[in-house]
Amino acid sequence: MFDGIAGQWVPVLCSEQLGVEPRTVTVASERLVVRRDAEGRAAAVVDLHQIGDAARAIPLPAVEAGGFVFVFTDRRGAGPPPALEEPAGERARRVETWAMPWTEVMERLLVQPQRSLQRDSATARRLSAWLRAETPTVVTTLRGVAVRWGSGELGVAQLDWVRPHGIELRTGWGGEDEDLLRLWCVPIDLHRTRVFVDRAELTDETGPPSAIDTTATAPTEELVLRFRRWQLRYGSSSRAAPPIDTGAVVRALR
Asked: Which of 16, 86, 92, 146 is most deeply buried (CB count within 10 A of its CB)?
């Protein structure tokens, strides 16, 4: 069950999409039914037969964080969900479906993150300049691995792989000039990926990444190597993968 992404918190809907009426979503070829309970909290089940057949429904832990509904892909207990920073200003959140496997989406975005932004955007141009001119620093974090750049004129940037399926791109100079883009790549099935986008309002739009330029070595290739190692170790049966502990504590729904 949930092959390749079991034992993890994954987003399934934007918070505003969830009401008392059941919503059906598919994660890693498993059909989930998500709704709000009588107290307004998110609740989720794996629907093995049909909506409303309680005898055939397996409950899963669910919680809301950062404007999204997260579900834990294992019924046998859950670690703490992501503690998502709430950036200042309005946020634009949406969900897109891309016709490629989630591991391919992750690798393309980790190798060439600027390709996920409109080419004429200020953020894309700035990030391309970093990739050409800066020598990045690779840092292991509690959540995964980060690549950092820094320059007085160009500002600073950090690209995080938040294991196993999250990406964060932070650019700017801090404070109001800082921009935070968050992406989660969640498999629908073997050939489709649901991409959850969270970024500042009225800024660059995202889109499916183009093919990787294999003629040049990307300075962010270390992120892809770490991602592949994680997949080799846990991808076939990620129940054994350690959950991401970000310090948040939440009561799982029963």
From this structure: 146
